[in-house]
Each structure stands twice: as structure tokens, then as C-alpha cells.
Design brief:
Elements: H1 17-28, H2 34-41, H3 48-57, H4 59-76, H5 80-91, H6 95-98
Helix pairs in contact: 1-2, 1-4, 2-3
């Protein structure tokens, strides 16, 4: 039987497979709870909240999460400056440049799209 796996078994920053799955789950989606990520990583539902808390306090896991987020951002070609530029672009956009409005006579049509006459 394998020894019980805990977050304290990380000498020299070597993480277990389960901890690496936890790191990946957290790094990929900040909106998910630690408990949900722990369950998805293979921790038992009964101990998932506790293990998520232990893992998130572990400095080796914190460093691994930061590194993994940086890797994901590099692959996606996204950085903080790009996000800020895009948000500024959206916030300062002129809606008149996004919408084309035509003013004119409108002919009524039936439900099949056939133009009807009055």
C-alpha cells in the first residue's frame, strides 16, 4: 500500500501527481473554488475543502500555480498590458461606429417575408 499523500510531502519543490492536477485546475480557472478543484484533482469529497486549504497555503504549490498561470498566459499570448488595452478600447468605443442606422420607409411583410401592399 502506498504511503498517504499529503501536501507536506513536497521536499525540494517536488509535487505529487495529485498536487500537480490541483495546480493545473486552479491555474486554468480562477473562478472555480479550491474545493471543486481538489475534487476534480482526485481528492475525496469528504476531505477536499481541507486539502484545498492546505494546498493553497503550501509555498511550493503557490509557486507552481504562479508558474503555470505564466505558462498559460504565454501560450495564449495574453499579458496584463493587452487586457488593459482591450478594456480601454471597449470602454472608450463610440457606439455610433458600431451600429449602422438607416432611416427610411419600411414596407410591411407577412410572416413568410413576402412584402405586402396596403
Amino acid at each position: 500500500m502506498a504511503p498517504k499523500e499529503t501536501a507536506l510531502d513536497t521536499p525540494n519543490e517536488v509535487l505529487t501527481k495529485r498536487q500537480m492536477r490541483f495546480v493545473d485546475a486552479i491555474a486554468q480557472d480562477d473562478d472555480r473554488s479550491g474545493t471543486k478543484c481538489a475534487i476534480d484533482s482526485g481528492y475525496a469529497e469528504s476531505s477536499a475543502a481541507e486539502m484545498a486549504s492546505v494546498n493553497l497555503r503550501n509555498p511550493h504549490i503557490q509557486r507552481a500555480i504562479t508558474d503555470r498561470k505564466a505558462q498559460l498566459a504565454a501560450v495564449a499570448g495574453v499579458d496584463a498590458a493587452l487586457v488593459v488595452r482591450e478594456l480601454l478600447h471597449v470602454a472608450t468605443a463610440d457606439p455610433r461606429e458600431l451600429i449602422h442606422t438607416r432611416i427610411g420607409c419600411c414596407r410591411p411583410s407577412d410572416s413568410a417575408g413576402t412584402i405586402t401592399s396596403h
